[in-house]
Amino acid sequence: MSEKQAHLNGAYYGPSVPPRETYHRPGRGGGLLSCCCSCIFSLVFKLIFTAVVLLGLAILVFWLIVRPTGVKFHVTDATLTQFNFSSDNNLHYNLAANLTIRNPNKKIGIYYDRIEARALYEGQRFSTVTLTPFYQGHKTTNVLNPVFQGQQLIVGSNLLEEFNQQKSAGVYEIEMKLYLRIRFKLGRIKTGKFKPRIECDLKVPLNENGNSVGTFQTEKCSIDYFN
Fold this sequence. Notes:
InterPro entries: LEA_2, NDR1-like
Membrane topology: Single-pass membrane protein
Subcellular location: Membrane
CATH topology of the domain at 72-224: Immunoglobulin-like
Main location: membrane
Number of strands: 12
Strand content: 35-45%
CATH architecture of the domain at 72-224: Sandwich
Protein name: Putative Late embryogenesis abundant protein, LEA-14
């Protein structure tokens, strides 16, 4: 009996007893929050998608009704009666141009609130003139006559070299830029102000004392509405 009791009171060397497994039920709060976030994101996405579709349809309907067409700018004639450098690098010039503006739209009129014309040679501005504002109606053509006359100091490393080459050819490469402030009119609705820039690359023969090596060819100008 004493032997049995000693055995029972001693250490136990059998296999270890595994711990009791516990089961945790997922909390209801986390699942509900996740569901709400998912519903909100889905709703926002649907609203954005619907807004984009409606905007696209509105633009399409507007285009089908109005059929807007870009305004056309052309320099149809340019006369250069003086273009030479003095010994102190002053450019003496006398340039007159005919600029036609064609509005081909049937339902859109244009207010030209400000028209600034600049003349440049080899990237350097040598003259600026401001032209009279006007309104251009539907399917009409207007002619502007900017005149650049005077003298201006111009310097540059390759300026005289380029000038002498063009002088020998009798044709000068002159750039004319127009800086506009315009508004569009559709019926009684007037838009906000836009500031497009017009660029015209001209090759103008010098006409001195009625002598010219050639005639000016009409040049189409480029338009940058997002300048």
